[in-house]
């Protein structure tokens, strides 16, 4: 998602931004817990033994308390719900919408470009037809909301791209 949205930071990660040692007041009963958000690859995420990172927990990240020679593969409804509802997914879909919207002004070309970026293939005529119908329906529904008119296309496109990012074709390599 970071890559297709244009938000991926390709630089190598450095040290985690821990607080200075003089501010450490951690004990057995008050352990260190922190989340350091990053737009780098997940290999640079801080892994804590007492608490797993939210996205890695949902998508079966390795158990940090045990040696794991082979990880089980699970597909659960929670993963689909995460992909549709998590604020991170919404942010990536919005960034993706800006990227696609800035590249092309016509709907069919936007849809095709999104497919090429996200799925590595051109959109079929049926994909473009379905996408165009979806965007028109969402734009019509957004007309009855408080969203300013100049922001409705971006919101509609972000909604459509959230569906694309949640698709099996995006999530799994065949």
A few lines on this structure:
This protein has 174 residues and is an all-alpha fold. Helix content is 48%, strand content 0%.
Q: Describe it for me?
A:
- This protein has 174 residues and is mainly alpha-helical.
- The protein has a domain at 77-171.
- The protein contains eight helices and no strands.
- Helix 5 (107-119) packs across helix 6 (125-142) and helix 6 (125-142) crosses helix 7 (152-165).
- The longest helix has 18 residues, at 125-142.
- The relative contact order is 0.12.
Sheet/helix structural class? mainly alpha
Uncertain runs are: none
Largest sheet: none
Mean pLDDT over the full residue set: 87
Strand content: under 5%
Query: Percent of residues in helical segments?
Result: 40-55%
How many helical elements? 8
| Overall geometric form | elongated
Distance between the termini: 18 Å
Radius of gyration: 20 Å
Order of helices and strands: HHHHHHHH
Q: Strand tally, please?
A: 0
Topology of helices and strands:
Blueprint: H1 2-5, H2 54-58, H3 77-85, H4 87-103, H5 107-119, H6 125-142, H7 152-165, H8 168-171
Helix pairs in contact: 4-5, 4-7, 5-6, 6-7
Jot down its keywords:
8 helices, elongated, mainly alpha, 174 residues
